[in-house]
Amino acid sequence: MASSAVPSFYLYGEPPRKADANFVHIEALVDRSRPSEWTIQPHSHRDLHQIFILETGFSAISIEDETHRIAAPALLLVPATVVHGFAWEEDSRGWVASVARSYFDRLVQPHGELRALFARSRIVPLDSRLRAMVIALAGELRRELGWSAIGDRAATEALTLQLLVQCTRSVAADRTGISVAPSRAAELVARYRELVERRFAFREPVAAHAAALHVSESALRDACARVAGKSPARIQDDRSLLEAKRLLIYSHLSIAEVGYALGFADPAYFSRFFRRNEGDTPSRFRTRSHERQA
Question: What crossing angle do the helices spanning 184-199 and 232-250 adopt, rounded to 10°?
Answer without folding.
Answer: 40
